[in-house]
């Protein structure tokens, strides 16, 4: 798809930051399992975290397409930082921008748009994430406050030094799910320790517990009982963003593999001169290309206000599979080095699997696509 000048310049600025600032240092953060707060803050200064948020609060007021361009460039180098941005913007800050009250927007959006704060969106529970309508966490109104009890698991951005807000889904009545914002430090909110993850090791993922956690009634985000609908809408955008992220991973695997295959020699010639390797590179290019077309098509429809739920599912399903396959081929092209954590494609190999799980597993995407076919 042809980019206009503004899109080209924005993508180029994010690419330069990713290549010059993230790429040289992210491997060490990854090995330590450490959240790279300064890098995320710098992305905030570049405007990445505020790109979709309203201009009146300091955002750029641009759409999902612009965010996708940034996520693709970041993930081309590292998926941990990309998912930090993706989860905070599409599932968190966008929730406040779309459904929050004017008071909530004025209170929280300026810092989020400036990239000084992050949001965690807490939907998944220990008893299951796919069956998301079944929310065991409960919230009851008592003297003008919501009292929340329950537990969430696998929550991205829940415990970073930058986290301003956790937006949790909770049952606020029989068959009624609502979204409630909770600020870190609220009594009764406990943020668990960072999980030991296979991949995305420089992103922050934790369990969250609510034990008689009290927040003002005004912390309800959106209408009472509309939480399920709200998060389904946010997840559609999230899937497009995750597809852009997956495309970046797929492209990054190709970038690295191409350089390596041209340099690495076996039997007196570069391994790229073997047709089996060259064809692998061609397939990787194809997967990155079709993934890009898929997420960009879905994003353009979203930004035009057209229905895009099925396109989001198609993009997420295709791009996540492409990323997994490119990571597998890239590690093969790198041989033994592909199994060493110091090699970026080894990180990609560990990172990409979760793309088939998060924000609706690929089984869920297939269900949505099948449903759109009337089956
Ligand atoms: C690193 C990481 C970060 C995450 N970040 C967040 C976050 O920020 N916020 C958040 O709320 N969640 C987050 N999640 C959770 C994620 O969204 C869930 O793991 C995912 O939705 C799947 O839920 P589950 O793990 O409970 O699997 P389950 O729901 O137990 O599903 C297990 C398997 O069964 C399959 N399955 C279930 N039902 C069906 C069916 N009807 N037909 C066919 N197959 C089916 C699923 O596709 C899956 O393969 C994160 C997860 C990870 C790993």
UniProtKB/TrEMBL annotation:
Superkingdom assignment: Bacteria
Record keyword Cell cycle present: no
An annotated Gene Ontology molecular function: oxidoreductase activity
EC number: 1.-.-.-
UniProt-listed InterPro entries: Acyl-CoA_DH_CS (IPR006089), Acyl-CoA_Oxase/DH_mid-dom (IPR006091), Acyl-CoA_Oxase/DH_mid-dom_sf (IPR046373), AcylCo_DH-like_C (IPR036250), AcylCo_DH/oxidase_C (IPR009075), AcylCoA_DH/ox_N (IPR013786), AcylCoA_DH/ox_N_sf (IPR037069), AcylCoA_DH/oxidase_NM_dom_sf (IPR009100)
Gene3D superfamilies per the UniProt record, alphabetical: Acyl-CoA dehydrogenase/oxidase, N-terminal domain, Butyryl-CoA Dehydrogenase, subunit A, domain 2, Butyryl-CoA Dehydrogenase, subunit A, domain 3
Domain Acyl-CoA oxidase/dehydrogenase middle: 120-213
Flavoprotein recorded as keyword: yes
Cofactor list: FAD
A Pfam cross-reference name: Acyl-CoA_dh_1
Acyl-CoA dehydrogenase/oxidase N-terminal domain sequence ranges: 6-116
Domain Acyl-CoA dehydrogenase/oxidase C-terminal, first and last residues per copy: 225-373
Keywords: FAD, Flavoprotein, Oxidoreductase
Family to which this protein belongs: Belongs to the acyl-CoA dehydrogenase family.
The protein, known as: Acyl-CoA dehydrogenase family protein
Organism in which the protein naturally occurs: Glycomyces rhizosphaerae
């Amino acid at each position: 798809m042809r980019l206009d000048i503004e899109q080209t310049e924005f993508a180029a600025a994010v690419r330069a930051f990713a290549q010059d600032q993230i790429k040289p240092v992210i491997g060490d953060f990854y090995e330590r399992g450490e959240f790279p707060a300064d890098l995320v803050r710098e992305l905030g200064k570049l405007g990445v975290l505020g790109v979709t948020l309203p201009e009146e609060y300091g955002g750029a007021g641009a759409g999902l397409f612009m965010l996708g361009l940034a996520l693709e460039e970041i993930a081309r180098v590292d998926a941990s930082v990309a998912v930090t941005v993706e989860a905070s913007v599409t599932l968190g800050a966008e929730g406040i921008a779309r459904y929050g009250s004017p008071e909530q927007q004025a209170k929280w959006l300026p810092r989020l748009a400036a990239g000084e704060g992050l949001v965690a969106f807490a939907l998944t529970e220990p008893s299951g994430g796919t069956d998301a309508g079944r929310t065991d966490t409960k919230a009851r109104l008592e003297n003008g406050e919501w009292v929340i009890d329950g537990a969430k698991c696998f929550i991205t951005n829940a415990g970073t030094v930058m986290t301003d807000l956790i937006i949790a889904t909770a049952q606020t009545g029989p068959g009624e799910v609502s979204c409630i914002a909770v600020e870190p430090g609220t009594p009764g909110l406990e943020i668990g320790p960072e999980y030991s993850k296979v991949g995305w090791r420089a992103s922050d993922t934790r369990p969250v517990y609510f034990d008689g956690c009290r927040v003002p009634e005004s912390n309800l985000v959106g209408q009472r009982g509309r939480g399920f609908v709200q998060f389904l809408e946010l997840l559609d955008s999230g899937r497009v963003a995750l597809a852009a992220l997956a495309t970046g991973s797929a492209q990054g695997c190709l970038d690295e593999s191409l350089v390596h295959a041209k340099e690495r020699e076996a039997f007196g010639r570069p391994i790229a001169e073997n047709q089996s390797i060259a064809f692998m590179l061609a397939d990787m290019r194809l997967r990155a290309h079709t993934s890009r077309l898929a997420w960009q098509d879905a994003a353009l429809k979203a930004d035009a206000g057209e229905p895009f739920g099925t396109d989001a599912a198609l993009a997420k399903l295709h791009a996540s599979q492409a990323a997994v396959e490119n990571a597998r081929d890239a590690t093969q092209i790198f041989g033994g080095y592909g199994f060493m954590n110091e090699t970026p494609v080894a990180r990609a190999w560990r990172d990409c699997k979760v793309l088939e799980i998060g924000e609706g597993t690929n089984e869920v995407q297939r269900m949505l696509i099948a449903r759109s076919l009337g089956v």
